[in-house]
Amino acid sequence: MHVLITGATGLVGPRLVTLLLERGDAVTVLSRNPDAARRRLGDVTALAWDPPSLPDGAMEGIDAVVHLAGESVPGRWTTAKKARIHDSRELGTRAIAQAIAAADPRPAVLVSASAIGWYGDRGDDVLVEDSGPGHDFLASVCQAWEAEAAAVEEAGVRRVSLRIGLVLDPAGGALGEMLPTARLGLSGPLAGGKQWWSWIHRDDLLALFLAALDGDWSGPVNATAPTPVTQGDFARTLGAVLKRPAFLPAPAFALKLALGEFSTEILTSKKILPKAATDAGFTFRFETLEPALRDLLG
Q1: Do β-strands 2-6 and 64-67 pair in parallel, antiparallel, or remain unpaired?
Q2: Which of 77, 236, 245, 295 could serve as a FRET partner for 23 with CA atoms 20 to 30 Å apart?
Q3: Is the pTM of this model over 0.85?
């Protein structure tokens, strides 16, 4: 296939590009800095992109599109940052979908990132793909994001929205942020630690992207491991793998003072199962947390 990727220089993109190239696919990436993208990603075609509008001819000869781009969510949520988080996903995805619909011939599939933020704070409820959305800020972002991606279906294009959970990768993301503190033995339960964290090993996430490209999946797919854990258990397991204590608590008010509204993403509870993927026969390499962390940190 010839695959077009946005957001290819983020946490997931470089490894996905490598896998596609290794299996013989051609890859074109859209980037604000195409020269830097080529240096980092290797044998790709890189086109300059000033989101949200796409460069002319971006969809020519493209068989599939993977849309990863969006403003980074972590950080203090100022009014301006929240607008960037929302608009980069809604307007960027709208531009991608419109370009796909206008192409002749059209790409066969759009695989768009989404997030488990779709579900909001749901306590101990078990959530699958047909569970309703939440009502907080990120839930509204995810609903707009997925709605724009789904527009390609009206043009006869298959669409998959991967609702990505907590990605385990020591190179970055949530785990990368946790490691310095955890290695000092300074981690522990946050706000009691009873909130559910739905996680996924980076290799399983990459495999889900490839399965979404190659198969006949459509609609939302939870990109989380089959065994979510509470935050307290996550901290204890990480401490055990690192051979460090993990008992220092952090109360909710301290997190809110330090992180502002973004703290809600640490404090909310989402107990999510990947029903669509497992029903389709997908096999996770890392179903439980401790082997996943040992693989990444061993």
Answers
A1: parallel
A2: 295
A3: yes
* Residue whose tokens read 């020269």: 35
**CA 154 remoteness from chain centre:** 25
Predicted pLDDT of residue 256: 84
- Domains, in order of start, for the chain: 2-167+199-224+273-284 (3.40.50.720)
Query: Which tokens is 121 given?
Result: 């704070």
Average pLDDT over residues 13-31: 98
Reported in sequence order, the residue ranges of 165-281 that DSSP labels E, i.e. its strands, are: 166-168, 196-197, 199-201, 219-223, 229-230, 271-272
Place of tokens 């983020």: 10
CB 187 within 8 A of CB 239: yes
Spatial distance between the Cα atoms of 82 and 141, rounded to a whole number of angstroms: 9
**What sign results for the dihedral spanned by CA atoms 225, 167, 71, 55?**
negative
Q: Which burial class, exposed, middle or buried, applies to 98 when counting CB atoms under 10 A from its CB (0-12, 13-18, 19+)?
A: middle
What percent of the chain lies above the pLDDT cut of 70? 100
